[in-house]
Amino acid sequence: MAEDYKKNRAKDGDAMKPWVLHPKQIASRMKKPNKIAVPYSFWQAGFLFITWYTPWPECAHFSEYYGDVMERYGFPPVLWIASIERARQAICMPIVCFDSTKDEDFERVQEMNRETTEYCLKQGWLNYRPDPYVHIQAYYQAAMYWKYLRLFKKMVDPAHIMHPGRLALP
Question: For the whole model, what pTM was predicted?
Answer without folding.
Answer: 0.58
